[in-house]
From TrEMBL:
It comes from the Bacteria. InterPro entries: DUF397. This is DUF397 domain-containing protein. Residues 4-57 form the DUF397 domain. Pfam families: DUF397.
Length: 64
């Protein structure tokens, strides 16, 4: 896997392992991880991620 440049979400919490990080991957994909489990990486597309974020903001998905 090529070296990824991770960027912390501006909405992430403090330094207590509550950070969501994103990195641009090949072929138009985005990689996601949580800072306290950096080896567990999910891959998605920008379109799918935008749909998830839109649903969260609109309250269509309950936050834990």
């Amino acid at each position: 896997m090529p070296q990824l440049t991770w960027q912390k979400s501006s909405f992430s919490g403090g330094g207590n392992g509550e950070c969501v990080e994103l990195a641009a991957a090949t072929a138009g994909h985005i990689r996601l991880r949580e800072s306290d489990e950096p080896h567990a990486i999910a891959t998605t597309t920008p379109h799918t991620l935008a749909g998830l974020l839109g649903a969260l903001k609109a309250g269509r998905i309950a936050r834990p």
